[in-house]
Write a structure and sequence with these properties.
The protein is mainly alpha-helical. It has helices at residues 2-14, 24-39, 52-62, 69-84.
């Protein structure tokens, strides 16, 4: 687990040094996997109707509800590796 956590934390740093900005769908996937991996299932109220970005982030994270944190970490690391390759 500690090795996975180290890979996860390194991937979180690596994502900031991408040469190109990923498309919005990929950014939402990265966000959702990071939140699921670091915090677990979504909590808190859904953002207001006019907070389009907040709502999109909330919904992307909500889709991962029930995914184990370790699985989300693995998927996040794999996605970042794919983007940095």
């Amino acid at each position: 687990m500690s090795d996975l956590k180290a890979q996860f934390e390194q991937a979180a740093k690596d994502v900031h040094s991408l040469s190109e900005r990923p498309d919005n769908d990929t950014l939402l996937r990265l966000y959702a996997l990071y939140k699921q991996g670091s915090e677990g299932d979504i909590s808190g109220p859904k953002p207001g109707f006019f907070d389009f970005v907040g709502t999109a982030k909330y919904e992307a994270w909500a889709k991962l509800k029930g995914t184990a944190q370790e699985d989300a970490m693995r998927q996040y690391v794999a996605l970042v590796k794919k983007l940095t390759a």
